[in-house]
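Technical annex B. To support the medicinal chemistry partners, we prepared a structural model of the target in complex with 4-nitrophenyl phosphate, based solely on the information shown next.
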Amino acid sequence: MVSVLFVCLGNICRSPMAEAVLRHQLREEGLEERVRVDSAGTGDWHAGEAPHRGTRTLLADRGISFAGIRARQIEKQDLEDFDYVIVMDHSNYLDVKNLAGREAELHRFVDFIPDTEYKEVPDPYFTGDFEETYRLVEAGCQGIIRTLREKEEL
Ligand code: 4NP
């Protein structure tokens, strides 16, 4: 089974949003059992917490489940356990590289979004704009499913 880990800073806004959205899209296509999806933060401040209210409201409004999602900090072992480690911004990239050592292969979430000028997924914890982040997350998760299909991992 192919596995995907989304990584952001706090693991309460962007990466749990991506976790919930990807799982939702997979379920809609009957592919939920084929992919293991998880998320983690580079920081540990919110460990054990449910997603941020802004993320919860946005997902609930769209009927997307976030049941059971709790924040946790990324561990070195995650880099061996997951096939795709996908970071939300440049600072996440550097932090995970630092944790991982040079050999680890990381992916940037924006690289799965077709025709975007965004270089990072904006952090709604600071921008307050959960909708903007959601639009990118939705398009990127569709891109991830497309990529997995192209690579015949689904
Ligand atoms: P996230 O957003 O990385 O998308 O979960 C943040 C959440 C919390 C904090 C920073 C970013 N924080 O500083 O507590």
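Notes passed to the chemistry partners:
The mean pLDDT is 97.
The CA atoms of residues 20 and 66 lie 5 Å apart.
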